[in-house]
Description:
heterodimer; A: 4 helices; B: 5 helices; 0% strand
Amino acid sequence: MATQTKDKKQAAKDVVDILEEIATLLNCNLTRHQISLCISLIENGVNPEALANVIKDLRAQYPEPELVEDEEQG
Amino acid sequence: MPDNIQQRVEHALSQLVEKVVPAYPEDDDQALQDRLDDAYDFAIGVVQDAGDTPLSPDVNHAHDLIKKKLIRDNLGPEKAMRFSNLYSRLLTLPVLQNKWALLYFLFILSE
């Protein structure tokens, strides 16, 4: 039983590793923790397109502070 | 959507909002909390509105969509080949019910 749990944990870690690398290839700009949260959301039935659009809209509505400074100085 | 799943979604979404929405230097605690609340209300609204929408048929082509994008957006084939390798490994893993939806999510986010 313990081996099964260990295997499942390893598989879950491998999934995050793989999706993290795919996200990097695609320049999605997601941290590992953000990817884990998105996996949980989509595995629990959240629409992937809606989730992606939520992240894009939030990034547009609330840009990172250094981006705001660059725009002010630009 | 059953209650326990709804709670999991709300909890994960609230954490995601906190990780995506930044704090600004001039913020006080209340300003930041108000921003997070607004952002969460927006996010949960979009997610719930899309709740029953059937997945786009493109979901099943997420692999092809990503591969074409990697070839299109990069000079050489290396990234596309790297993705194919990662994709094959992903298929062998016994966890994850919604692999295509996750790949499609990454594709849409990258567009």
